[in-house]
Structures are given as structure tokens and as C-alpha cells.
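Reviewer comment 2.1 asked that we show a complete input and output for one of the modelled complexes. We chose the S-adenosylmethionine case, as it is the one discussed in the main text.
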Amino acid sequence: MDVAQQNGNQQATLWNGHTGHAWVEMQARLDQILEPFKNLLVEVVSRAQRRQVLDVGCGAGSTTLAVGALLGSTGVCTGIDISEPMIAAAQARAEQEGIAARFLRDDAQVHAFEAASFDMIISRFGVMFFDDPVQAFANLRRAATDDAELRFIAWRSPEENPFMTTAERAAATLLPNLPVRRPDEPGQFGFANRLRVHKILQESRWTCIEIQPIDVACTLPESELVTYLTRLGPVGVMLQEADDQTRAQVIETVRPAFDPYVHGREVRFTAACWMVSARASASG
Ligand SMILES: C[S@@+](CC[C@H](N)C(=O)[O-])C[C@H]1O[C@@H](n2cnc3c(N)ncnc32)[C@H](O)[C@@H]1O
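Response of the prediction step:
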């Protein structure tokens, strides 16, 4: 049975459908945009000298593979993701690049991990999509050893990340059925509220919780901006169903809204994120 059918999770449907396929197709470009975050996590694993690492919501696997390459024969990095196309892409990359890594296609919220099997759990933007985040982080806590470390990166608010909502704001009148983003709902900005994230981790028995703001400079080539805005995010999803005329109108309206971010051949924006760390502990 399909994962989406098993747990009725809307996010599973999304990531196994258009959004998952779009991420696979744009994997090389997204990896370039998100590379600074991969580097931050690889550095953390390297400093912590951990050996059994779990990458949650690993997508097409770039962080998993980078950590796998770092660990070499001294450990294993396992990636878990709910998306069939993204896990398939991750597995193909591991084979191509000759990097030993393990990939699981399942919902990390409920997956029956072996207890106490990971000494580090990481995620690059892969943990904001759970429909029951306390259940999910409690499940991850069970999978963690008693001295394990949790490190993940999540987006701060949409207000602090105006680049990310430029397309939907500009296209609002042309695409009246664009979904409205609601605070705290599963999705890109689901972990924007720092106090909520703290509470989720506390309730799921993580300790030493630290939530630090990080502002990271990101770039993409201007030549790929239209592909970016027509394939990804809520506007990208809506455009899959739109007729040619609406599509052309949306591009004509939305592209100039990105002008403030365009510097010659490069698009530059600041990603306002949280770097979250926590520890498992025997008494926790
Ligand atoms: C924004 S993407 C990030 C992917 C990857 N970490 C990266 O940085 O390229 C979010 C990922 O979380 C995955 N995801 C969403 N809900 C999940 C769940 N319940 N269990 C496992 N993965 C999930 C999605 O399929 C998607 O690959």
C-alpha cells in the first residue's frame, strides 16, 4: 500500500506528487541554492564525531550523501523520506557517486526505527511537515541513543523570508485559489514559531534545547528564476493545472516582482532560518 494511503497524510500526497517530482527535476539547482545549509550540517557532524547518523526528510539525499562521504567506513548515514520519487533519486545518486548510505522510504513520524540506533539526527528543512510533531520527535527520540544529538535547520517566518512568498503575493489576483498559509500548519513555515518548536521538543523528551537564528546568503542564476517560480512553491503547484494564457500572465506579472533580488546574472536572497539543537538524555 502507498504511504499516502497508509497514513492519510496530505504531505505524503504532496511529496509523492507534483512537488516531489519538481524537487527531483530541480535537484541540482536546489542543491546549489541550499548548499550553505548542507555545509553547516556536515560541519556539525564532523565536529561531533558521530557514527550513526539519521537524516530526516532527506529528499534527494544531498545532505545524507555528504555525511556518508564524511563518515566513510567509520559509520553510516541513513536518510528517511516519505517521497518515493525523492528516495529513488537519492538511491540512484548514491550508486552513481559510489557513496555508502542507507535510504528508507517511510513516514519518519511513525517509522519503526530500531530503538537507540542513531547517535546523531539531522535535517535540512525536512521536519516541518509532520501532522503530529510531538509524536514524530518522540519517535525520533526513541531511535536515538541516550547521548545522541539532534540538529536541524528550519525556516523562520514568511515575513522574515519575503523572497519565498514573492511569487504567491504577486500572483494572488491571477490565481485566486492559491492556498492561504496558516501559522503552525505543516509546511515550509511550520516551525517559524520558536516557542512552539521548543515546546514540541520538550514534550517529546529532548533536552538542552537551543534555537538560534541564522541568516544565510543564497544565490541562483537569473536564467533559472522563471523555472524556479513556475515549478516550486504554491504558485508552481497551481501552474501545473493552469491554461497557457494564465501561465503566461502569471509569469509576466510575477517575474518583475523578483527584480529587487536580481543583481546582474545572479539572484540573491537571505534565508532567515533557525538552527535547532537538542540532546537526548537518559533521564529525558
Ligand atoms: C523541503 S524538502 C527538503 C529535502 C532535503 N532535506 C533537502 O534539503 O534537499 C522536505 C522533505 O521532507 C520530506 N517529508 C515530509 N514529510 C515527511 C515525513 N513525515 N517523513 C519523512 N519525510 C518527510 C519530503 O518528502 C521532502 O523530501
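The pocket of S-adenosylmethionine is lined by residues 11, 15, 20, 34, 57-59, 62-63, 80-83, 86, 107-109, 124-126, 129-130 (CB under 6 Å). We note this here for comparison with the apo prediction described in Section 3.2.
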